[in-house]
From TrEMBL, chains A, B, C:
<feature type="transmembrane region" description="Helical">
    <location>
        <begin position="131"/>
        <end position="151"/>
    </location>
</feature>
<feature type="transmembrane region" description="Helical">
    <location>
        <begin position="171"/>
        <end position="192"/>
    </location>
</feature>
<dbReference type="InterPro" id="IPR024041">
    <property type="entry name" value="NH4_transpt_AmtB-like_dom"/>
</dbReference>
<keyword id="KW-1133">Transmembrane helix</keyword>
<feature type="transmembrane region" description="Helical">
    <location>
        <begin position="242"/>
        <end position="264"/>
    </location>
</feature>
<feature type="transmembrane region" description="Helical">
    <location>
        <begin position="42"/>
        <end position="65"/>
    </location>
</feature>
<feature type="transmembrane region" description="Helical">
    <location>
        <begin position="6"/>
        <end position="30"/>
    </location>
</feature>
<feature type="transmembrane region" description="Helical">
    <location>
        <begin position="276"/>
        <end position="294"/>
    </location>
</feature>
<feature type="transmembrane region" description="Helical">
    <location>
        <begin position="105"/>
        <end position="124"/>
    </location>
</feature>
<feature type="domain" description="Ammonium transporter AmtB-like">
    <location>
        <begin position="9"/>
        <end position="408"/>
    </location>
</feature>
<dbReference type="InterPro" id="IPR018047">
    <property type="entry name" value="Ammonium_transpt_CS"/>
</dbReference>
<feature type="transmembrane region" description="Helical">
    <location>
        <begin position="330"/>
        <end position="349"/>
    </location>
</feature>
<keyword id="KW-0472">Membrane</keyword>
<dbReference type="InterPro" id="IPR029020">
    <property type="entry name" value="Ammonium/urea_transptr"/>
</dbReference>
<keyword id="KW-0812">Transmembrane</keyword>
<comment type="similarity">
    <text>Belongs to the ammonia transporter channel (TC 1.A.11.2) family.</text>
</comment>
<feature type="transmembrane region" description="Helical">
    <location>
        <begin position="300"/>
        <end position="318"/>
    </location>
</feature>
């Protein structure tokens, strides 16, 4: 019981930290976008948190862990409306005493909303709020937990074996969270098209600078803090060796990711690019997430450094493909999510060619499913209610049209 | 001893989270008010934290828990100046091993300042700083701990019985914290009068928009995070079943509160109102606070949803009554505080008509005392040093007159 | 094992909180400086976190704890590249079961970057980024861990005895962290010279107000939160009596520091100075840091109050000496760091004249070393690559020249 109590304290702390990541995402997104769409982005992010939790409560949790605890939970099998704990859900028998059933639900519920948040950044400044809300409800409520069930719900990916490799491995969700969001971001961006003015008539990408870089930087530091919980909590107990190693690999990869992106971008672009530095940190964090418990500190540094380099190249690639991703979400969450997933086959205690193949195959399976479902949802929305705001609305900003409100309505300059 | 250590870690974490709520309150208040009063509001909030802690140290704690631990603490009985721990204060004998005496003091001390913070938002942009500071010292130093002693200090409310109901119930302070602050806010707003320009000559409320909505939104997310500690710590130990249920009910009520306010305000006002969404979240949080440990997740969702609806109606009601509450503190903390307190008689494991009566009676008793004391203090201040700044000062903004400082003195627009 | 798990959870939480202090430092620095240098300051702070962690990983940790755990770690003795845990590093045998080896590394690593962050604020708005980065690498990578090894690595300061006093005492780093940073700040400011316009032709200090005071205030509250981990974690276990007392003394000193600075500055300058209030809080926090575990709450209040008074006088003194420290880092970290260190000889359970002498002597030894090394590094940089940006760059702002970026590039005023 003492150990359950301690484990549960750790898991509740991690739950709180993952919750706090939503402030980080919000800050990052509003900071890197234009002022006229700030209220809209905040609205989307607050909506995602609330509806993400509620969808997970209504059905997501049951959907994601279908066979969990001897059939007490089935596909959309509710105990009345919502959730209900199994009899042993508060005892050390549940989940090897790593946490209580309530904590399990809440920790996983905080993860659920993350996938939609990733999309939110990529589609910012031009998506219709109604369409985005419908997408979020479906993607968080159905797609995310279905993919999650394949691995974390003991589904087929968790037993996908090739040669010596026994099952896909994704510790805290480089694929199951970050690239699930990233694939949808990619599809959404492709179907939405770029913002007015993002590409000149000859196809050259133009800078559409954000309106509050300090807030974006704060967002990244808050996300790094949140990752203490995101990865640290994915140990699913407070096991001292496991949790503390994971925090070390997580932080070293973040630091190395930042330095990698800083150095490469300084060499390539001859200036000290703060945004690239920040995205490098995020890339390192996403990159270590699949194998944070398998890596030595040295390997974490290498994975992070490479993630930082990948970010710089990835952002350039996205631009070259004429995809308009205002916050770099595709490079960070999709490309580094794939990198982190594959890195499990290259570095750390599971490394091996067979594991690499399993990792790659799982990336493709998850990618195929996410691309398909995201396309169906977003395409259906496009053909019905429409997904893109009018040109006038986009130029004026979404805040005034959808919300009748400015982000800084009373802001004045100092008269002195 | 292992369990005491774990419990104490949880309680210290919760203490830190409740402390952090003060940043949430500060952000919410400055975001929803005009730029010219920003320094003043920050000053008030920082003052409240410091003086709240010190007043609780000088006498509040002893006053709130008078008979606690076999008479070692009496009414204003100091061990010298300030506080001193009882002999067993660091052992598992103290408080059933839920925490140490030091943690007890600090956790409760962090709560104490909250009541005054609630008032701060409602009276913003027109109250004299000196008058507010005097009010804070008295209200935090005397009124809050006296009311607290009636229930949490094992006073008469805790044994107020009607029929089958055995005592008032207020888990984490819907009444003892939030409505204690809310009643004073109501009185203060009534005695202060509305801000210049808030009501037109024919009595219609005018929008006086705030100056930094992103910061207000961040404030709400920080407050939600803080509520993990506010409610989670009110279990007074790390008991796994208790704490993790409380976090689930707290978060579900917050999410449902947001959605409730969002849906109703969208229907009523035909636009996506971020401020209402945010206040709905806060309403859900305040609403669940009295019974967070008694409710099932389903009940928490219902309580939250209703709180969200109450917020939308409450804000309109306050406007109709020509009360000028710039941040919606009365609707959030007073009205939803009452709602949450009564909900303990309607939902959850203590529900029943007798309990409902006890809850209602306690709301009236606490309300009567708070209204009376707040009126005496504020009326006395009004008749002596005055509580309202001059018209010129209000129009110019309090920052330049009281602080000789702008909030963004060097802010410039981009010249490109 | 249960106790190790709990201790380790606490220490990981404290590690996360100390990490979060970097957001606090960043916010404080950008808030109190001019908008045109915001990107530059954020870049420096993000760089410090990343490179601080990586330097500590490459060699700092081994350097700071050279003889730790029976010779497994020597001076720059790597297990391959980077760090490697000893065999017992995850067992209760390590560090009396207070934490695992990984947690030890990460907690200490988060401390390491702090010293450079302190310097960052003092030299803001005029230092060359390249020079600052080189300085940071050397100071964090070598100077900080060498000084740390003298005390926390069981070096000669820890056994420096005079009469009855058995060794220097610095609980959480008033000297080893704060004044290590503060001395370097002093030297750097002296070698850099003041910002253009800071002193008029007749030598009078001019106000160069910052651009975002709310962000600076948020920074201070985040730093206070972080200090829960900074001091609370310095117990090096979750020992209930130790940790909870430390949080109480820390918070009371912070509150008293704020009130002390508020009262004195109001008397002296006849206005309610928010910046002074905030710096008083920081002064109280730095002041209690050396003896947070030795003091009673009453003593903590006195130490904090005096620290608040010292801040007001210290800021005036720095101005008088024509040193230009935009954020008050020297008064906060150096002067209050010395005050806190000496206070261990005056108050609390180690008080005594002999201890006072040991404390003072240690301040001088550490100060001598830091002044010397900082001077050598910065003077060498000055004579080679130069440490100060051109006059044009300083007037235009560092953001446009070094980063090609504005902090708020798309910020617009409300048109209504």
């Amino acid at each position: 019981m003492e150990l359950l109590t301690t484990n549960n304290v750790w898991m509740m702390l991690c739950t709180a930290l993952v919750f706090f990541m939503h402030l980080g995402f919000s800050f990052l997104e509003i900071g890197l976008t234009r002022q006229k769409n700030t209220i809209n982005i905040l609205f989307k992010n607050v909506f995602i948190i609330c509806v993400g939790l509620l969808m997970y409560y209504i059905g997501g949790f049951n959907l994601m862990y279908p066979g969990f605890e001897d059939g007490d939970f089935g596909f959309l099998k509710f105990a009345g409306f919502g959730i209900a704990a199994p009899e042993n859900g508060m005892t050390p028998e549940y989940a090897d005493g790593g946490y209580t059933w309530w904590t399990d639900f809440l920790f996983q519920g905080m993860f659920a909303a993350t996938a939609a948040t990733i999309v939110s950044g990529a589609v910012a400044e031009r998506i219709k709020l109604g369409a985005f809300m419908i997408f979020t409800v479906i993607y968080v409520g159905l797609v995310y937990p279905i993919v999650g069930s394949w691995q974390w719900g003991s589904g087929f990916l968790s037993s996908l074996s090739i040669g010596e490799a026994e099952g896909f491995y994704d510790f805290a969700g480089s694929t199951l969270v970050h690239s699930v969001g990233g694939w949808a971001a990619l599809i959404a961006v492709a179907l939405l098209g770029s913002r007015i003015g993002k590409f000149s008539s000859d196809g050259k990408p133009q800078a559409l600078p954000g309106h509050n870089i300090p807030v974006a930087a704060a967002g990244v530091l808050i996300l790094w803090l949140g990752w203490f919980g995101f990865n640290g909590g994915s140990v699913l107990s407070a096991d001292p060796a496991g949790t503390s190693l994971v925090l070390v690999t997580t932080c070293l990869a973040a630091a190395a990711g930042g330095i990698g992106a800083f150095v490469l971008s300084t060499i390539l672009y001859k200036n000290y690019d703060l945004t690239m530095f920040l995205n490098g940190i995020l890339g390192g964090l996403v990159g270590i997430t699949a194998g944070a418990d398998l890596m030595s500190p040295n390997e974490a540094v290498i994975i992070g450094l490479l993630a930082g380099i990948i970010i710089v190249l990835g952002v350039a690639l996205i631009d070259k493909l004429k995809l308009d991703d205002p916050v770099g979400a595709i490079a960070v969450h999709l490309i580094c999510g794939i990198w982190g997933t594959l890195a499990v086959g290259i570095f750390g205690s599971k490394a091996g060619f067979d594991q690499f193949l399993v990792q790659g195959l799982s990336v493709l399976i998850v990618g195929g499913f996410c691309v398909t479902t995201a396309f169906i949802i977003i395409f259906a929305l496009k053909k019905t209610i429409g997904i893109r705001v009018s040109e006038k609305e986009e130029i004026d900003g979404l805040d005034s049209h959808e919300h009748g409100m400015d982000a800084y309505p009373d802001f004045r300059l100092n008269q002195h």
